[in-house]
Amino acid sequence: MSITRITTNGLFRNYRTNLTKSTNKLSDTLEDVQTQRKFNAYAEDPVAASKAWRLRRSFWRTEDQIDNNNHVVSKYESAYSAMAAVVDGDSENPGLDGILSSVEGLNGAAGSSRVALGRQLVSTAESIVSVMNSRYGDDFVFAGADGEHIPFEWDGDKLLYRGIDVSTPKTLYRTSDFIDSDGNFNKDHFNDQKAIYEAVYSDYKFEDAVKLNDMAEEATYVDIGLGMKENGKGELITGSAFNSSISGINFLGYGEDKNLPVLLRELGQIFSNADPETGNYASDTDRERADELLDKIHSAVNNSQGEHVKLSADAKYLKTNLEQLKANKDQLNEQILDTEGMDPAEAITEMSWAQYCYNAALRIGTNILSQSLIDYMS
Question: Most-buried pick from 221, 279, 288, 346 (CB within 10 A)?
């Protein structure tokens, strides 16, 4: 029969080992109660930690998308309110429909108030431009992709959009039309089209016409949860992001006899030159031009009203998208809690048991120490 000898040193070593385990277990369970997490290091549960990291990455990205969406919603609401002041009017401004009614009523043979209306039209044109130069934060709302610089400025009777006359006759070309498959600018093709254009419109520059088209279609894409993907060439798929750029020339029109403030201002000047007593035009040329301008103003007003409706639809879409993003954020948060979070009752139970084991280890240690002291004394 073999006899196992238990020495004092061996007993102490086993006790210290078990006491250390109990102490570490108590510390771990106490940390679980404080953090309410199932794991506090990747090594504790690599599978759950990897899943939690992916969930948190999606959660943080959704938060960024919500911030982007909020910014764009506010910008679009500001733009919509500004356009409403132009389209619908207020107690002091009759709005576009009211202006049209007034103009149509005074464009006939009788119209002694034509001069007064002319001054109002000029004032309205300037007021529209002022509204279109409104800001949201530090940026100009209707400045397209260049929100730092004022979009519209009067230069005499000319209205400039970011330095270019909005009455510059349109062209079908954009800068991208002169870029070949290798990404190089085709200067010969550009010069050919430039010569054709400026042979017809000698007072305007082809570069300006191209630039106006570019500015009307320029984009500033933001991620609002639509996917934000690139194609095989590394180019952004436009449908996977939202274009937050708002170009003022799309709302007011651009090109020869297309811009609403320019048309209103010219008609106002013609009316202002009429006879103040009878309202008769200063010349037959003025009367004919007034008739032309009225038709063109009708078209420009319809364009502005259509863009206003589109702006409203975009703002509603952004609000709906915002609600969806918030719902996604809540769902992700729930998944994160399920993956990382520990049930508080379970954590407290584990800590209580660890505390009991630790206390028991201390009591055993007391007994061991007392017996060892007796052995030593004997």
Answer: 279
Say if residue 288's pLDDT is above 80. yes
- All structural domains of the chain with their residue ranges: 8-36+342-377, 99-303
Model confidence band, residue 114 (pLDDT cutoffs 50, 70, 90): confident
Percent of the chain with pLDDT strictly greater than 70: 80
Token couple for 365: 């240690």
Q: Give the separation between CA 78 and CA 137, rounded to whole angstroms.
A: 10
Q: Tokens representing 169?
A: 């006759």
In three-state form (DSSP H/G/I as H, E/B as E, the rest C), the secondary structure along the chain is CCCCCCCHHHHHHHHHHHHHHHHHHHHHHHHHHHHCECCCCHHHCHHHHHHHHHHHHHHHHHHHHHHHHHHHHHHHHHHHHHHHHHHCCCCCCCHHHHHHHHHHHHCCCCCCCHHHHHHHHHHHHHHHHHHHCCEECCEECCECCCCCCCCEEEECCEEEECCEECCCCCCCCCHHHHECCCCCECHHHHHHHHHHHHHHCCCCCHHHHHHHHHHHHCCCEECCCCCCCECCCCCECHHHCEECCCEHHHHHCCCCCCCHHHHHHHHHHHHHCCCCCCCCCCCHHHHHHHHHHHHHHHHHHHHHHHHHHHHHHHHHHHHHHHHHHHHHHHHHHHHHHHHHECCHHHHHHHHHHHHHHHHHHHHHHHHHHHHHHHHHHC
